[in-house]
Amino acid sequence: MSTRPLLNRRLNGMGSTIFAEMSALATATGAINLGQGFPDTDGPAEIAEAAVRAIREGRGNQYPPGPGIPELRTAIAEHQQRFYGLGYDPDGEVLVTAGATEAIAAAMLALLEPGDEVIAFEPFYDSYAACIAMAGATRVPLTLRAPDFRPDLDLLRAKVTPRTRLLLLNSPHNPTGMVLTPDELTAIAELACERDLLVVTDEVYEHLVFDGTHHPIAALPGMRERTVSISSAGKTFSFTGWKVGWVTASRELVAAVRTAKQYLTYVSAGPFQYAIAEALRLPDDYYADFCADLLRKRDLLDTGLRAAGFEVYEPQGTYFITTDITPFGEKDAYAFCRALPERCGVVAIPNSVFYDDPDAGRSQVRFTFCKQDAVLADAVARLERLGG
Ligand SMILES: *Cc1c(COP(=O)(O)O)cnc(C)c1O
C-alpha cells in the first residue's frame, strides 16, 4: 500500500460525528441520553399505521419516482401554502429527499464550485461543514455568541466577498435555539439580493417556534428565485428514522438539486412517503399540540438545569437547550461531556465541536428535551448531584 492517507483531504478531521460518539457512550454506561436529538416516543399511531398499510398494499415497495411520489409532493406544496402562503408547483418545484441531510448534501454538491465561499452560522449543524467540504467549497463562519446568539448583520455583510456563492441559514437554529426575527430575515434577504447570493435554508424545526411563528425567508421579496428551502418529517412528526425530507424552490433550483440527488440515493423511503403525505395534512391541532408539548418540556429542563447550577440560554425554538458550565468552575465542554456519564449518569453534547473558533463555544453544552417527562425529571435529579 502507498503511504498516502486513505481519507481524502476534504474529509480530513471529520472522523465520526459527535452524536455517534456520545450515543455510544450513553449505551456503554447506561446513562440518560440527552445528547442526540431524537424523541423517545414515536409519532402519531395513525401515521405509523399508514406506513404499514402502504407496505401491505404494495405502495412504494419498489423504486418510487425520482422527485418523490406525487401524493407527497402535493402534500408538501399544500403545507407551504397553508402555513406560509407560499405557492409551489408539486410538479417541478418540490423534491423529496432522504431526510434534510440528503437535501443539504445535494444542494451543496449541485450549487457550489470548488473555491466558492459559503457563509453559515457557527455553531454549525455538523453535516454543513462536511457537505461544504465535499463540494470543494470553503466555509466562512459567522459566529453566534452567547447569551442571545443573534447574528451580527454588519459582520455578515462584511464577510461577503466576490467568491461568496451562498448563505446557508438555519432557523430555528440547532444547537442554540436562536430564531431569526422578521427584521433579521429582511436584512439578510436584502443582502442576498444586492450581492446576488443563493440562500439555502434549513428549516427542520419550523414547527418548534415558541414565541410567534416561523417565517420562511423564501416568502420575502426577491427571494423565491434564489432560495432553496429544506425541511423534513423527522422532527415535526417524531419519525426521525424514516428519513423523509424535502426541498421547495424554483423549477431551476429544484432541477439543479435533483441532478445531484439522483446520484446520491436515487430515491428513498417509498412507503414512508405515503404516510408522510397523510401526516402533513394533519389538522392544525396536531402542530399546535406538538409545539405546546415541547414548550412544556423546555420549561421543565430549563428550570432543572438552572437549579443544578448551569447558566442556561433559553431557546426560542428547536428541542435543544444550550448551557454554559463556567458556574461549575469548568471550561472545557468536551471534557465535561466525556466525564458526565461517570459523574452523574447523563449524556450531553459539547457545542464546542460545532465551532471553528476554538474560544467561542468552549464551555457550552447542549441538552435535548424531546424526551418523556419522567426521563427529563430523572435527568434533572441526576444533574443536581453535580453540586453546582
Ligand atoms: C436533525 C437535523 C437535520 C437532519 O434531518 P433529517 O431529516 O433527519 O436528515 C438537519 N438539520 C438540522 C438543523 C437538524 O437538527
From TrEMBL:
The protein in question is named Pyridoxal phosphate-dependent aminotransferase
Give all residue intervals belonging to the Aminotransferase class I/classII large domain: 31-383
State the UniProt keywords alphabetically: Aminotransferase, Pyridoxal phosphate, Transferase
* Superkingdom classification of source: Bacteria
What is the source species?
Streptacidiphilus alkalitolerans
Q: Where are the transmembrane segments?
A: none
Matching Pfam families = Aminotran_1_2
Cofactor(s) named in the record = pyridoxal 5'-phosphate
- Entries under SUPFAM superfamilies matching the protein: PLP-dependent transferases
Query: Which InterPro entries does this UniProt record tie to the protein?
Result: Aminotransferase_I/II_large (IPR004839), Kynurenine-oxoglutarate_AT (IPR051326), PyrdxlP-dep_Trfase (IPR015424), PyrdxlP-dep_Trfase_major (IPR015421), PyrdxlP-dep_Trfase_small (IPR015422)
